[in-house]
Amino acid sequence: MDTVRPRSTESRRLREELRERTADLQRVKAEYDNYRKRVRRDRMAVREIAVVNVLGALLPVLDAVDRACEHEPMTPGLKEIAATLESQAGSLGLEAFGEEGDPFDPTCHDALAHHVSPDADRLTCTTVLRPGYRLGSRLLRPAHVEVTGPPPPGGKPGLRRDLTGTGQAGGPSLEP
Q: Beta strands 138-141 and 132-135: pairing type?
């Protein structure tokens, strides 16, 4: 009988060690899984930042190509450059926005001129001077637009209306 107790004691001790090692292994596995997820998220964030930086640097190139397409005869080479640049930027997620007739949104449009129209009921983009760009939900550059809308309520002629919602109205009017 003396040999039974030491065995059961050792058996209990071995079971307890096994439980501890199993718990340790589960903790290490969970830590490693969390580490892999964190590294994956960090890599995606770095990729997104890199894409934003590259596309932001290419916006002046897109503007120059757009101006060349508007003012120069469309040669096959210019046409191919414009199409390739547009498709490659689009494949990275770049979206141009700002169309005539869009409702004015101060979060994504910069109004450079405000024209008054008594029959207008809201501010509308009437001329797009420079397109805006976004990458997913991130605004890279607001669109520069001219807007047409109702006269400001109680506004004084000759003063510019606050189109940005910042409360900083004033200055000379851009209206003719």
A: antiparallel
Task: Tell me the sheet residues that pair with 96.
Answer: 133
Question: Counting Cβ atoms within 10 Å, is residue 163 exposed (0-12), middle (13-18) or buried (19+)?
Answer: buried
Between these two residues, 118 and 111, which has the higher pLDDT value?
111
**Sign of torsion over alpha carbons 25, 27, 30, 35:** negative
Gyration radius of the chain's alpha carbons: 31
Residues 6+ apart with CB under 8 A from 79: 69
From residue 120, give the alpha-carbon distance in Å to each of 53, 116, 128, 144: 39, 8, 18, 20
- The encoded tokens of residue 34 equal 């969390």
Q: What was the pLDDT predicted at 167? A: 47
**110 bridge partner residues:** 144
**Continuous H helices in the chain:** 4-71, 76-91
Helices (H), 72-157: 76-91
Q: What is the mean pLDDT of residues 70-77?
A: 89
What is the token pair recorded at 8? 């059961």
Percentage helix, strand, coil for the chain under 3-state DSSP, each rounded to 5? 50, 20, 30
